[in-house]
Amino acid sequence: MGFKQFLTNNWRLVNSNNLFINRCANSVLESHNIGYAQKSVVNKLQLPLKPKKPSPPFFQYLKERRQEVIEKHNLNFKDAIRFLSESWKDFDGDTKKKMNDIYNKELEQYKDNMKVFNQNLTVDQKNELFRVKYEQIEQRTKRKLKKELKELGKPRKPLTAYLKYVTEEIKNHGNEPVQTYMVTIANKWKEMDENKKSKYIESAAVDNENYKNALLKWENDMIKAGRLDLVRARALSKDDTDN
User: Fold this and answer.
1) Per residue in 71-81, pLDDT tens?
2) What whole-number distance in Å separates Cα of residue 83 and Cα of residue 170?
3) What's this model's pTM, rounded to 2 decimal places?
């Protein structure tokens, strides 16, 4: 069962758990990017357009009223979804039933269209679509992991000596385009006296040492918490040796 269908079947839960509000908002925001990627593949492989899956009634309700609620009540995107999920409870029952009936008919038609669509694809086209879908899932997984690591307080890798210099120099680009000035910075770094460079190199070395110590401490905390999936293999080996 897809998330949209799950949310439609369990819309009463939306108001009791902010996670559903966030996921609902994120799914709407991400759908544009996913659609764009699919269109690129369609153009590249000269595929027929993939049948569009109908939106469940609750999502139709969101789409039709979201902008109006945002403007009328001066709400942000997520608060508007929260507001509409509340109002959906009291939405006219007969209208809901009609919307559900139409949705179910459209869903059956969509399933038939998808069968025809898949039957007309070549093996190469199916493989390419699978590859794109896999990459999309991989990207979403990476974004979720990055967010989780940030929430768990994983230390961030420090800047290198060169990037420290760039950060310092980029403020002086004035009216010169940043891309052009980056070339100037790179040339300055190459020609810089080693004694001047040492300031950045030594500072980066100190930051890197502090980062390594902080990372080891964080990984030990993760091991104690049972989150071995977030820890490097070398940290696990060290922990086994210490024990």
Assistant:
1) 988 989 889 99
2) 44
3) 0.53
